Amino acid sequence: MVTRSLLMVVAFGSFCIIRAQTTDASCLPFYQWMANSHKKSPCEVASALLGICADSYNVAALPPNTHYLGPTLKLANPCQCNTVAYSLMSACGSCQGRTFDSWSTWSANCASVSVNSFPEPIPTSVYVPGWAYLDVKTNDTFNELLAKQNANTTESTFIPPPTSTSTKPTILLLLSKTLQIRRVTRAQMPSSEALSGVWWDYPY
Ligand SMILES: *[C@@H]1O[C@H](CO)[C@@H](O)[C@H](O)[C@H]1NC(C)=O
Ligand SMILES: *[C@@H]1O[C@H](CO)[C@@H](O)[C@H](O)[C@H]1NC(C)=O
């Protein structure tokens, strides 16, 4: 008989005007190495990154015998469908003394995935630990040991747009502004499902 384990899905898109990192998950002291240079836990960094595609993304603390689930088919977005978010969410589960899914399970509902990269620009004052960019595909899992060995590798953070007076970048800038506006418009119309809080799931 299959063990019945209670799985938990994280809320994404609890509607909020201010985009903020929200989490009540806290890491055990043993996992301090997972924190970034600004002492932010992987749960906080994950929440900040996942919040880029939603208006906010709450990473709720995991009760015993639960773990974070990847995105649903309906709500899968680029912020979730990448190995960086997967690694951070896996680390977030692990640092609470819980388990985490395999990469293939996490990304099962993703139409496309970004591997070893995060597809969106990183917001100011968000620092993504270097270990979050490590390979998870080869072994189909977040490798905690490898991550720890790479605890002090260079972080990724906000890259200021280049300042230039030539014509081409201006066009690009205008283009990217248009895209930003379109993205904002889309983000401001979340589905009713995206507005609700936390999902619970009981797969057997
Ligand atoms: C994959 O697993 C092998 C055997 O456990 C390990 O030596 C290797 O470092 C792992 N690679 C990654 C990228 O996790
Ligand atoms: C990372 O840096 C901290 C603080 O300097 C140090 O204690 C730790 O051993 C380092 N970890 C690795 C894997 O180099």
From TrEMBL:
Q: Which superkingdom is the protein from?
A: Eukaryota
Query: Which residues belong to the signal peptide in this entry?
Result: 1-20
Q: Which keywords has UniProt assigned to this entry?
A: Signal
Q: Does the keyword Signal apply?
A: yes
Q: Give the protein name, as stated in the record.
A: Secreted protein
Q: Which organism is it from?
A: Collybia nuda
